[in-house]
Amino acid sequence: MALGIKRHRQGGRLGFFERIQDKLFDRLVRAKVRRRFGGRLKALVSGGAPLNKDVGEFFTGLGLPLLQGYGQTEAGPIISVNRPTHSKTHSVGPPMKGVELTIADDGEILVRGALVMKGYWGDDRATADTIKDGWLHTGDIGILDEDGHLVITDRKKDLIVSDKGENVSPQRVEGMLALEMEIAQVMVYGDDKPYLVGLVVPDPEWLASWTKETGKTNDYAALVADPDLHTAIDAAISRVNKRLSNLEKVRRFALADEPFSIENEQMTPTLKIRRHVIGKIYRSRIENLYGGGAKGK
């Protein structure tokens, strides 16, 4: 696995003995995996939500190239996608043929071309706000790297602006936290605040194992205020904080009363968290984190 990831990162360059080991792994492991997918699989395509870089590299190292793409209903719907011959896991690839793409002064991704819609049916005002001088204002923030690959950093409306005027991408922080075995879901908050705080939903499988090991109750409502559970979650957040900049570190957190879901209207049908809904429900709990509460290191 590690050799496959290294080969992907270095554009196929491996040492002599590494190449031998990689070929052996290809025959013994990757070939079996490909056969389980029918034997003719060329690549997998990911879209709809940000692909964690580690997850993408895991699949690629296993012999299943995972190509991240980007699009919107208003634009075709495909704007860009990684190519099998030159894939960058952290990006959504270069624009498709015939797609003009530029980055506005405020970082917003603008798209122009035959793929852009004519407008919203019966809503001239929304159309005028979205399409200006032929450019579709996507509402996403991103950059173009040295190879012309598009890297999306966040939704324009989701960016957190600290009390010092610095921008933080919540999706990056949340994505890293959600990879920890203790955490199923998380929402970070910090608009006009001195630091980030988080609202955490523990992973149910991990929690079941933890309660069994510690002899704690299975009643989650009783566990929300349990200091030992907070200590365990704090350890997971602290591990992630070591890999984040000072601006991105989650300094304090609270536990949510229930998972974010479509049913409780805390997630959209496309499984994106509704920040404004969650923020309203837990407003007092979040605000209390700026005066006390569980700390992340």
Specify Rg, calculated over alpha carbons: 22 Å
Helix content: 25-40%
Distance, first to last CA: 31 Å
Beta fraction of the residues? 15-25%
Total domains: 2
The largest β sheet comes out as: 5 strands, antiparallel
Low-confidence stretches are none
- Mean pLDDT across all amino acids: 88
Kindly state the number of beta strands: 14
Number of helices in the DSSP assignment: 10
Give an overview in words.
It is a single chain. By secondary structure, this protein is of the alpha+beta class. It folds into 2 domains: 42-157, Luciferase, domain 3 (Roll), CATH 2.30.38; 159-295, GMP Synthetase, Chain A, domain 3 (2-Layer Sandwich), CATH 3.30.300. It has 10 helices and 14 strands. Strands 4, 5, 6, 7 and 8 form a 5-stranded antiparallel beta sheet that branches. Strands 11-12-13-14 form a 4-stranded mixed beta sheet, with helices on both faces. The longest helix has 21 residues, at 16-36. The protein is globular, with a radius of gyration of 22 Å. The relative contact order is 0.08.
